[in-house]
Amino acid sequence: MAGLESHSPRGCRIVMPKIALKNETDWDGWRQVARRLVLAGIEPEAVTWSVGGTTETLPEASGSFSLSRSLVSLASVAIQAREPERFGLLYSLVWRAHAGEKLLEDGGDPDVALARRLALSVRAEAHRMRTNIRFLPVSDSGATRYLGWYVPAHFVLEANAQLIARRFPDKAFSIVTPDGAAHRDGAGLLFGSGLKHVEDDDALRAWWERHGRQLLEQAEPGTSVPEAEDLDEAPRPLDRPALGPVVLKLAPDPVLVRAGKDATNCHRCPLYEPATQVVFGEGPAGATVLFVGEQPGDQEDVIGRPFVGPAGQVMDRALEEAGIDRRTIYVSNAVKHFKFTMRGKRRLHQTPDVSEIQACNVWLTIEREHLRPRLMVLMGASAARAIMGRAVTISRERGRPIRMADGQTAFVTVHPSYLLRIPDAAAKAREYEAFVQDLKSIKAIMDAA
Ligand code: SF4
Predict the structure, then answer these.
(1) CA of 77 relative to ligand 1 center, distance in Å
(2) Distance, CA 293 to ligand 1 centroid (Å)?
(3) Average pLDDT value for the chain
(4) Ligand 1 centre and the CA of 268: distance in Å?
(5) Total domains, the chain
(6) Average pLDDT over residues 276-283
(7) Rounded to whole angstroms, what are the CA distances from 133 to 111, 136, 149, 167, 313?
(8) Where is the Uracil-DNA glycosylase-like domain positioned along the sequence (predicted)?
(9) Nearest CA to 322 among 423, 422, 416, 420?
(10) In angstroms, rounded to a whole number, what is the distance separating the alpha carbons of residues 351 and 339?
């Protein structure tokens, strides 16, 4: 850490430290420095944060202070965001908390809101990585190593590798990303260089055969990243068979990317106003199955991607059990902005009304007409109304292919958020199983096409 000095108008020295952290997820380093800076009385505006570079001694500081567990937990997740300003943002929260501000109780504080959005996005990406990564068994010195490749939107490699290592203590694995790679070797985790791009599983396997051993030998122990409680959920078993041949990078359709950008300026109904952003559909070009839900939820509204919140996580699990690879389907909603009502500081979901579904149908129609999917999976009554143009009783029409007037095929099922709302555990398990059965029927239709 290099320290610059300036002078205040009264002639006192002002230290302006330049902090160089070891890496993008140097939680321990950031925490130690933040503590020293606060105790030395160095204001957030005076500090410059970066990753890598030379370090120097910080100003002397003594004493101690403590922070609330919830603030530490928030910072420990938000620091994994791919956001260059996060170190300074989190330091300013620590600074203000030390000054006695009750930060987390103020729902309207913009810095707290930003940190929460970053943490939310990190959690969603950590889950997404664990859901989407496919492990290939490869040979490594006569034993089996599970090899996965992924492009994370945030710096979630370390936390996920720690979690996977803990859950599968007897498995050797390597997770390769463009930022770097994590290897479980022997009892420990090692981190080393990664791989920018790979076309498919065969190319990944060939790359590993050429370079894997050398990469393992060059890898080193890394810093440890805290595993927040809500990151601590079961990862996919490493040796579950991959869902058929997988092309690792599935590009989105440029026409639909363009439509998604156009939708950011949509004012066709009032829902754009209170929402954070439009949440357009996503999926690879040429997807043959279109899954339609109702509208983005609270987390989707913040993150800007469909089905990444709790309902999306239920859907991911059920898709996996049904043998459907989420990376091959297109997922969207009948309504592209989050409709909610405030209760205290919480945003509670509100069902969109018919006029809003009709207003937003222009975007769903673009997605539908451009994709021309072989099958449209309509999850819940709003999705069914949007596509079928009439009220649909889910219990009466679910679970079978329905031929539409235009020759396309629809399949009605429940929305995964319905499963989250069932209070009775046994009924919830039954309904979840019925949802998986519907997805298995969908898989059979996909395979037969
Ligand atoms: S909900 Fe749909 S129609 Fe309404 S403003 Fe958003 S994008 Fe436009």
Answers:
(1) 32
(2) 15
(3) 87
(4) 6
(5) 3
(6) 94
(7) 32, 10, 7, 16, 15
(8) 280-440
(9) 416
(10) 7
Low-confidence winner among 146-160, 269-283, 406-420, 421-435 (lowest mean pLDDT):
146-160
Atom of ligand 1 at shortest distance to CA of 275?
6
CA pair distance 259, 252, nearest whole angstrom: 12
Token pair for residue 53? 């570079």
Q: Could you tell me if residue 242 is inside a domain? A: no
| 3-class secondary structure, 261 | helix
Q: What is the pLDDT of residues 129-176, one digit of tens each?
A: 887 788 888 988 888 999 999 888 899 999 999 888 888 888 899 999
CA end-to-end span of the chain, whole Å?
Answer: 61
Ligand 1 atom 3: residue of nearest CA: 360
**Does 432 fall in a domain?**
yes
Mean pLDDT on 359-372: 96
281, 330 Cβ separation under 8 angstroms: yes
Tokens representing 416 are: 């995964």
Q: Two tokens at 219?
A: 């890898």
CA-based R_g, the chain, Å? 24
| Helix H or strand E encompassing 413 | strand 409-413
Q: What SS3 state is found at 199?
A: coil
Tell me the residue type at 75.
A
Go through the chain and tell me how many residues it has. 449
Give the three-class secondary structure for 169.
Answer: coil
* Tokens matching residue 13: 């020295």
Report yes or no on 237 lying in a domain. Answer: no
In a domain, 189, yes or no: yes
Q: Quick one: which of 227, 84, 79 has its CA closest to 167?
A: 227
Determine the distance separating the centroid of ligand 1 and the alpha carbon of 409, expressed in angstroms.
Answer: 25
Q: Which residue has the tokens 């609270």?
A: 298
CA proximity to 342, closest of 107, 71, 104, 105: 107
Q: What is the per-residue pLDDT for 57?
A: 67
Residue 268, ligand 1, Cβ within 6 A:
yes
Say if residue 105 is in the same domain as residue 140: no
* Domain assignment of residue 302, given as a range: 254-448
Q: Report percent pLDDT > 70 for the chain.
A: 89
Q: Which of 341, 373, 380, 374 is nearest to 357 (CA)?
A: 380
Expressed in percent and rounded to 5, the helix, strand and coil fractions of the chain are 45, 20, 40
